[in-house]
Structures are given as C-alpha cells and as structure tokens.
Amino acid sequence: MTTGAPGAVMVFSSSVSTYGDTRADTPPVSVTHSQTALDIYAESKIASEARIRESPVDAVILRIAGVSVPVLQEPPEVWPFTADQRLEMVHRDDVVTALFKSLITPEARGKTLNIGGGPTWQIHGRQYVADHFELIGVPVEMASFRGEDEPGWVDWYDSTEAQQLLAYQQNSYEDYLNTLREEVARMLEDDD
C-alpha cells in the first residue's frame, strides 16, 4: 500500500461487536470469524473496515473488546450481556498501549487484530458483575442482565497475534480489581 505521507499509518479503532452473537460458536473468536452486525454501531464499523481495505492507506484495524475503566462507576440498570455469557473486557491502559504500538510496529501494518484483555479477563457475565458488586457491598442478585433472547455481542477473543506483535496486555483482571479495591479503601479513608 502507498500513502500520501511516507511512513504514515492509520490505526482504525473497530470493535468486536462486528462479530455479532457468537454464543453458539466455540471460543475464542478469531479475526477470521464472520461479521454479523446486531446494531447500527457494528454496521458502521464493518463498513469502515471495508473502506479501509479498499483504500491505498497503510492501516492497522483493531477490533477492540469492551473497555474497562479502573474507576468506580454507577452500575448500569441492565448489564449489556447475559449472566452466563462469555465475557472478555480489556483494561483502558492496555487499549492505549495497543493503539500506540500499532503506530510504531511495522509488522502490524495491513493486519486486523483482536484487542482483548487476554486469558485472565476471560470470565462470564455474572462473575464480572459479582466482582464489581462485592466491591460496593451489593449482592449480585440485585443485578439485571440482558435476557437470553437479546444477548450482547461479548465473548472471548483470540488476541494471540496482537499480543505477540504489540505486547500490550500489561494489566490482568486481578490488577484491575485491585485498583478498584484501592479506590474504595481511599474513599472510605476520606470519609473518616
């Protein structure tokens, strides 16, 4: 591929939402999996990926999993996945690392890569919510999940190639939870 600026590379933030409902498939979901949009957001990502592939631009396409931000936030009224659904998020800082390293890693050019948290983040919806609710002293039974007839697009992802190229997975799921525990402890100290 050629570009207007020598050495320039475009990093496109796509989404694992483009795979659609993968619950019936054997995990992990690879980048060769078919793309089936469940909503207009995923449709727009699929269309954008196609345009990038047709263009002469040097590009890296990153299909990013749901991003977990290590701060306490109010839980959603309904979690965007079922209780039993496979779930893999990725730490916010690791996404930033993946984006940056995609720009500076020549071997990544022309690739489509899954950006997920990796094996430590591969859990189920109920566990993710239970861990968050435990931090704030709320029983998981109070959580509302999507119904089985309207699943979210989350799953476990094959990010092996992305990790080999970019070495971006630096924050495990336990690291993420520990950051939240520290925040809770700090808030309780401030209240004293």
In short:
The protein has 192 residues and is α/β, with parallel strands linked by helices. It is built from 5 helices and 7 strands; from the N terminus they run E-H-E-E-E-E-H-E-E-H-H-H. InterPro entries: NAD(P)-bd_dom_sf (IPR036291).
Question: Could you walk me through the main structural features you see in this protein, from its secondary elements to its overall organization?
Answer:
With 192 residues, the chain is α/β, with parallel strands linked by helices. The chain has one domain: Rossmann fold, CATH 3.40.50.720. The chain is globular and about 55 Å long. It has helices at 40-54, 92-104, 125-135, 160-166, 173-191; strands at residues 10-15, 59-64, 66-68, 86-87, 89-91, 112-115, 123-124. The longest helix has 19 residues, at 173-191. It contains five helices and seven strands. The strands form three sheets. Strands 1-2-6 form a three-stranded parallel β-sheet, with helices on both faces. It has a two-stranded parallel sheet with strand order 3-5. Strands 4-7 form a two-stranded antiparallel sheet. InterPro entries: NAD(P)-bd_dom_sf.
What are the salient characteristics of this protein?
two-stranded parallel sheet; NAD(P)-bd_dom_sf; Rossmann fold; 192 residues; alpha/beta; 7 strands; 5 helices; NAD-dependent epimerase/dehydratase domain-containing protein; 14% strand; three-stranded parallel sheet; globular
Trace the largest sheet across and list its strands. 1-2-6
Termini Cα gap: 60 Å
Total number of strands: 7
Number of domains: 1
Biggest sheet descriptor: 3 strands, parallel
- Mean pLDDT across the residues is 93
The string of secondary-structure elements, in order, is EHEEEEHEEHHH
Rough shape? globular
Annotated CATH homologous superfamily: NAD(P)-binding Rossmann-like Domain
The second-level CATH architecture is: 3-Layer(aba) Sandwich
Could you please say which CATH topology applies here? Rossmann fold
Class derived from helix and strand content: alpha/beta
Q: What portion of residues belong to β-strands? A: 5-15%
Number of helices: 5
Fraction of residues in H or I helices? 25-40%
- Rg on CA atoms, Å: 18 Å
Low-confidence stretches: none
CATH class: Alpha Beta
